[in-house]
Amino acid sequence: MKRAKAMLEVANVNKSFGGIMALMDVSFRVDRGTITAMIGPNGAGKTTLLNVITGIYMASAGEILFEGKNISGIRPHQVSYLGISRTFQNLQVFQNMSALENVMVGSHCRTSAGFIACLARTLKVKREEKEVRNRAMEMLGFVNLAGKQNQPGSSLPCGDQKRLELARALVSHPKLVLLDEPVSGLNNSETEEMGDLILKLKESGMTVLLVEHDMNFVMRVSDVIVVLNYGEKLAQGSPAEIQNDDMVIAAYLGD
Ligand code: ATP
Fold first, then answer.
1. Which domains does the chain have, with CATH numbers?
2. CA nearest to 65, candidates 21, 3, 13, 22
3. Strand ranges (DSSP E) for the chain?
4. Atom 21 of ligand 1: nearest residue by CA position
5. What is the CB-side half-sphere exposure of residue 178 using CA atoms within 13 A?
6. Residue 4: Cβ within 10 Å count
């Protein structure tokens, strides 16, 4: 039987920074509607790979295929336009902006009205603004922040800020979301809430690729786990397979 086209394919990707080989011949696929986690020790190359996928870095060799199309080397805003959005390892919430404005920022590359139209605030601009606002409100509700739309970013606890970033990543109707350490800095109940949300995202049909060190969280939410070590793919499998993989235990998980 022919296998369906992957949502994302990382094919033989290398990335070097001067003499440092951050990624060496890394290949894996992310199937539509699944949650894939990348794990591995500090410096293994996880964030570098997210940066290669999103066009922040250009791969030194290899290809990134999105829905079967080679997107290697295209600019970050083009990657976003194609339907890949992401969150970052460190909180990127604008502290002086309201929660709603923080989410609306995520849709900037989707609106089509040009500069002159914006200046004139034509009907088209107003309509697009209204649509973006409605979508942002919907996403705030999705991440359990309904009612907090007018609060400044700075007033929100860490768990709310992380979920706010998720809402921002979702506002542009992506097909694939990349989450860099979605539960770092969160307490147990905030981590559980984030896990529930990511599983709810999957139920809605979204495809997710995430990087995370919290193994309970990873084992709970992932369909597939890819393990990186010193820039190389060490293993790939289901949570149960990875938990029992001797090489992964020796390199990362421990006993
Ligand atoms: P962590 O779990 O600590 O976030 P990671 O697996 O995400 O680690 P990366 O941040 O991708 O690891 O780093 C992989 C390697 O590439 C490291 O040796 C790092 O120092 C190096 N590296 C990453 N970005 C750059 C850069 N812009 N310039 C030079 N070296 C870099």
1. 1-83+174-255 (3.40.50.300), 95-173 (no CATH)
2. 13
3. 8-17, 20-30, 35-39, 61-66, 69-70, 84-87, 176-180, 207-211, 224-229, 232-237
4. 22
5. 24
6. 8
Rounded Cα gap, residues 222 and 126, in angstroms = 41
Residue 17, number of CB atoms within 10 A of its CB: 10
Pocket lining: 43 vs ligand 1, CB cutoff 6 Å: yes
Is the C-alpha dihedral spanning 194, 163, 222, 184 positive or negative?
negative
Between CA 150 and CA 171 the distance in angstroms is 17
Beta bridge partners of 84: 176
Contacts of 172 (CB under 8 A, 6+ apart): 80, 85, 106, 107, 109, 110
Answer yes or no: is the C-beta of 106 below 6 A from any ligand 1 atom: no
One-letter amino acid at 87 equals: T
Asked if pLDDT for residue 217 goes beyond 90, the answer is yes
CA of 165 to the centre of ligand 1 (A): 22
The owner of tokens 């506002």 is 171
Q: Of 211, 192, 177, 149, whose CA–CA distance to 84 is shortest? A: 177
CB 83 less than 6 A from any atom of ligand 1: no
**Across 12-16, 43-47, 78-82, 104-108, least confident range:** 104-108
**Cβ atoms 153, 97 nearer than 8 A:** yes
Question: Per the structure block, which two tokens stand in for 149?
Answer: 């739309």
Express each pLDDT in 174-203 by its tens digit.
Answer: 999 999 999 999 999 999 999 999 999 999
Pick the atom of ligand 1 nearest to 48's CA. 11
Ligand 1: distance of its center to the CA of 22 in Å? 7
